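Lab notebook, bench 4. Still working through the backlog of constructs that have no structural model yet. Next entry is a single chain of 315 residues. Request: give me the structure tokens for it.
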Amino acid sequence: MARPLPRILSTPTARGAASILFGMVLLGFTDNFVRVIAAESGLWQFHALRSALAVPLMVVAGLILGMPLRPRRWKAVAVRGGVQAASMLIYFGALAFMPIAQMAAGLFTAPIFVLLFAAVFFGQRIGPRRLAAVGIGFLGILVMLRPDPASLELATFVPVAAGAFYGLSNLLTREWCAEEPVAALLLSFFLILGFAGVAGSLVVAGLPAAEGAPSAADFLVRPWGPLSGPALLVIVLQAAGSLLAVGCIAWGYQSGETSYLTVFEYFFLATASFWAWAIWGETLDALGYLGIALIVGSGLLIALSAAPGTSAARL
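Model written out:
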């Protein structure tokens, strides 16, 4: 007999999974509008303005709802926030000139890196099934990115770099910050991104003006400038949407095993790809979908290997 939904959601891991799924729905929609911002704003102005909106919202919400904003271990929270901020800087920076489906696939190599970093930094064992998952995921990366050995560029691996930092931040959420208030994790994340936005703005302000025709890469080095109403509206929606989504994800990861819960983030691939098609007409070829399928399959294998009640010693 099927169990009623309230009973299914009564376990911490199930509630964490539902929270992460909701966060993915929000991010899949809002991230598709970064290119609207990239047409007028620079990466650093975007993050500075978004944090300037998100931080006061977080503080007000914390005061009204009684959510503690002070971390218990500020060093651990700061490191975790810095790692997650690095992932998002890479991710948003590349969204201006790479298809969102390709960037999302790279970002969701995170379960592979959760597994590898857990073994390297926390001494967790990697059994045969998880090793197979790493191999499948790596094959998916190669199929998705299709690097040409004759013209290999660092930019080719930008999506994977975002995934590595994101995976490490997810692991640190569970290993170092499981007892931290979610509001404190959120606040530290947006504060660090805001400081990075201000610092980056100061750096690019001293760079010489770009010459030649405008390009998508200008998003990385564009100095502060006036923004239109639509661009400002998107930044406001990004601030509110990402604040809620990241909060859902952080709370979700505090609720259960990281390598199990991380697979539910793959719903982002579906929502982001759908909105990219619906809004911008972006599509993938057959190899692109094969690469995504291999990466998702890798994450599923990792999740099944970490399923509750399964002995890690036998994996």
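Notes after review: The chain is about 70% helix and 0% strand. Confidence is low (pLDDT under 50) at residues 307-315. Flag for follow-up if needed.
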